[in-house]
Specification:
It is built from 18 helices and 11 strands. By secondary structure, it is an alpha+beta fold. It has 3 domains: 204 residues, GAF domain (Beta-Lactamase, 2-Layer Sandwich); 146 residues, Arc Repressor Mutant, subunit A (Orthogonal Bundle); 63 residues. The strands form 3 sheets. The protein has a 5-stranded antiparallel β-sheet with strand order 2-1-5-4-3, with helices on both faces. A 4-stranded mixed β-sheet has the order 8-7-6-11. The chain has a two-stranded antiparallel sheet with strand order 9-10. Helix 15 packs antiparallel against helix 16. The longest helix is centred in the C-terminal third of the chain and has 21 residues. The chain is globular. It comes from Micromonospora peucetia.
Length: 429
């Protein structure tokens, strides 16, 4: 059976295929029809690109530049496997007049490296670090389409939606966080028509799998480094000097409360945050703090007031820091779910609402369909009527996701007992 993700099957003449698909592309742009000789993955991508009202003559916008780009990509998880990408693809890109590119989960190019002459040509179509190469902004292309379908894919010449990109051929594969399965980005190799072969697709697939394997076993460890993961889980995970310690539910709540107030808390304040007004148990609280100190070590937990010593990183604080820097996409990328969602401790519930509320407000303010779709895909955003309404407004009438958004608006409106006309009519026009 032919590989549907491979652009050219054995024995097909490249020049003939370029002309054939080029004619189909022009027919699609003029009449919206996709002839059967166009691969299904490409035809679907053309429809998504057209649904985003993308100009086929456009080049992708620059999302990040200068210090913002450097700061973002240095903190991105894929920075840890950049040496691997260079080792596996860098030499091939240099010697074969290709480019090696790595993008994040939103299609923003983090690194584009390779043959200097090819780099200069690529700059003309904004195939540069910081540019947004997801399908809504760049149309059909290997990294953007690989992210859209979450599968490795090869895009050949005139299969690209944007005409300025049709002289290129590329192959890309998505990369996931091995611990959570979250999409981190994609790795791509771009060059001339000679890349339309099974080897280039197999190479990016193997490189992506190697990157995932390295991420799984080669996490950065700093001497004395302490990190806390508490988003999207009922029990926090503490990482100290490379060791992973899963905390119990009460210890998780105490640690999050201490992280939420770096200046410290008295025993009474912690008790109120933990148990509420009518369930203050000082003896029980002191016992819990004593046990937590044994887990953390006396050098980490201070008393009078209770507070954490040194630098302790926490995933929910990272989300807040990214929002403060004006990076809602990065914050959403770092957001693994609500803070200790199973906790009913009043102080934890307040922090949870704060983190979710700030992220939600920042995402809604962007009016970016990709970010809005990502937010509505989280447990916190799945029932967010305002977010679904914002997504419906941001999507053009022909976008594939729009019927889903309208259906979800109708469903939530019924659950909230809102008038159908109020909830839907303005999105149909």
């Amino acid at each position: 059976m032919a590989d549907p993700w491979l652009a050219l099957q054995f024995g097909v003449d490249p020049a003939e295929r370029i002309a054939q698909v080029g004619a189909a592309h022009e027919a699609f742009l003029s009449a919206g029809a996709t002839p059967p000789q166009v691969r299904d993955v490409v035809a679907r991508s053309w429809r998504r690109s057209a649904g985003a009202l993308l100009d086929p003559e456009a080049t992708p916008p620059i999302d990040l530049a200068d210090d913002a780009l450097e700061s973002y990509r240095s903190a991105h998880p894929l920075a840890r496997v950049l040496p691997l990408f260079r080792d596996l693809l860098g030499g091939i890109a240099q010697d074969g007049a290709h480019l090696m590119a790595v993008c994040d989960a939103y299609g923003r190019m983090l690194w584009v490296e390779g043959h200097p002459g090819v780099l200069r040509h690529a700059e003309r179509m904004n195939f540069v670090p910081g540019a947004r190469w997801d399908e809504p902004h760049a149309g059909t292309n290997a990294p953007g389409t690989a992210l859209a379908v979450d599968h490795s894919v090869q895009i050949f010449a005139t299969e690209h939606f944007s005409r300025p990109v049709q002289r290129w051929t590329c192959a890309a594969a998505p990369i996931h966080d091995p611990a959570t399965g979250r999409l981190l980005g994609a790795v791509d190799i771009t060059g001339g028509d000679h890349l339309a072969n099974p080897q280039s697709l197999a190479l990016v697939r193997a490189t992506a799998r190697a990157a995932e394997a390295q991420l799984a076993v080669d996490r950065p460890v700093e001497p004395g480094a302490v990190a806390v993961a508490a988003l999207g889980r009922d029990e926090a995970e503490l990482r100290v000097d490379g060791r992973r310690i899963r905390l119990g539910r009460r210890h998780s709540e105490l640690l999050v409360l201490l992280l939420g107030r770096p200046d410290g808390r008295t025993g009474e304040q912690l008790g109120l945050d933990l148990y509420g007004d009518d369930r203050l148990h000082p003896v029980t609280l002191r016992a819990e703090l004593s046990r937590l100190r044994r887990v953390l070590g006396p050098e980490l937990l201070d008393s009078r007031p209770y507070r954490l010593r040194g630098t302790v990183r926490a995933d929910f604080r990272t989300v807040g820091e990214l929002l403060e820097r004006g990076d809602p996409a990065g914050a959403l990328d770092a957001y693994a779910g609500s803070l200790l969602p199973g906790s009913d401790a009043p102080g934890v519930a307040r922090l949870r609402r704060l983190v979710d509320g700030q992220l939600r407000a920042a995402v809604l303010a962007t009016r970016d369909p990709a970010l809005l779709a990502a937010w509505t895909g989280t447990p916190a955003g799945a029932d967010d009527l305002a977010a679904w309404q914002a997504l419906a407004r941001a999507l053009p009438p022909g976008a594939p996701r729009r019927p889903l958004a309208l259906a979800r608006i109708h469903q939530l409106s019924q659950e909230y007992d809102l008038p159908r006309a109020t909830s839907l009519q303005r999105f149909r026009n």
